[in-house]
Amino acid sequence: MSDKPVVIGDPGPLGLTAFGLTTVILSLINAAVLPGAIMTVVLQLALVFGGSAQVLAGMWEFRKGNTFGATAFTSYGAFWISFYLLVNNIGSMKTDAGIGVGIYLLMWGVFTLYMFIGTFYINKALFFIFLFLLVTFILLALGNFSGSAGTTALGGWFGLITGILALYAAAAGIVNSVAGKTAWPVGGAFIKSNS
Hints:
globular, 74% helix, mainly alpha, single chain, 0% strand
């Protein structure tokens, strides 16, 4: 047996692509650009790509020793799987659906808040992805609590920006990897680590 460590590719672009594609399509529905009738498209994507591919990316991030990436991808992958189940079972909540979904989104906002703080030490691309995602969750939670279609639509627009930023960061990861240099910038950290 060789003592040579196993090298794996960067799972980040996979996780970011899975998150970004699913987020863009759902956000277009939330922003009322696309009709809610196509939610089935989002649900299938949420289960197979947004959910499963992100969980796999998270497991590979654990293998690489990246606590932030592992926690982010595994958690948001689980978000998409739970979103699939939530939407398929929302009828059982009857009149309390807005409150239930609002709490669900608010707690994801809490999780996103401390993940956002972690991005201060990573890079500006992730900083802005998590900043816009945080605002998205807050607006969507408020929209569900109040029943305000306008607040939900605004959350959809912030979600659309979030998804586009994630797709850019994924593309940068792929292009920079194959180019062997920083061809597409993602920016340095806002706060430099002492390690």
